[in-house]
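Handout, section B. The chain below has 414 residues.
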Amino acid sequence: MKPEKTFILLLIYFVILNGYIYSTGTYFLNGFLLLITGLISLFLFSSGIKIPGKIIGVNPDLFAKIILVLSIGLTIILLDTTTILEPGLTRLSYFFFVFLNIFKFVLFIALILSLTYLGEKSRIKSRFKYLLLISLFLSIAIILMSPNPYIDTFVGIKEGVLMLFRGINPYANKIDNIPLSPSYSSYFSYWPSVLLFNAPFVFLSGDPRFTSIVANMITAIVMHKILKKNSSGGSFSEILPLIYLFNPVSFLIIWKSWIDPLAICLFTLFVYFLLSNRRFISLIFLALATMTRQNLFLVWPLVWKFLPFKKRNIISLILPFLILMLPFYFWNPADFINNGILRYAAHFAPRYDSLSLNTFVHSFSSQDLDKRVYFGILSLIYGIVFVKMKRSLTGLILSSTVILFAVFLLGYFA
């Protein structure tokens, strides 16, 4: 990709970043406007808007380094103001504030290390490895700071896995004492892949959040390998994985036990094996990612536009579904369909605290966004992106990003 295009993508990312980090996803008008700006810019970029052949002074490598430094700095500043200190949810450990001060100090070390990237040369040859280890340490520290948070996702995933260990169908039995939110039910309502990937960590540690930690590390390392192989030298292959790890809300995502790191990891492995021309394995990872985040079904038509529609490719996508889902289906068909498959089709009250178009509309009119309008806008965006998508891996990733971003931002629960 040309430096000008890389620079613009980084700029769009920085706009989007500033749209949600200050409220950690809770609605505020300025943040929503920044996110809409980011979505429109990304949509226009993916649709093939002409970029000037040369922009004077563009240095995407330097800009990426600045974003990394700012991300770590913002994490330090925002640490005390995020919901990591929210009363009633955190269930603080006895040494919480000791861990918090250590957390800040280690982040400060990470900030110093990130600043060394701004120079042309550095004597710290292993700074990338040091920053990976710091991210790993901080992620584990988050769990130690709050070992048993009262959060729907954490309780739901942990109890679902424990039910499975006891031979109880997690789709057929209610989870006791789960803090219900408008987008969560009292049953285990994720697909079996979430059980599969969280089971080892719940068994070993009793905490599903270690799944996210391992997933983030794998994502960063695989990103590094991809970029190192396909970039023209420099430190870009180190900076982008670090930007991902040190996103100001990445530790919050781990704390809340959201499944996004797992889905991103599986999708990254899909890209990695696709680049290695190992399509069968790559599509298995796409299937696993889709079972983790069902919105990824929207990516499938884009994939078929990029890949040949062959029997072998279809089998590699369908096989993981059959292996993981059929046992739970035959265990109790009705409960699996109702509490697992149809969960997203069920009616949940919209989240009026979410950074979404519906919240924006509701804040002015006290009315929800008409679903026909939502699906109409989304269909229009999807159609244009599909038609304009370039038959390349970069085009596939960019188009997928636009679609998934639009689904969340224009919806009711983002």
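Note. The two ends are 30 Å apart (CA to CA). Compare this with the example in section A.
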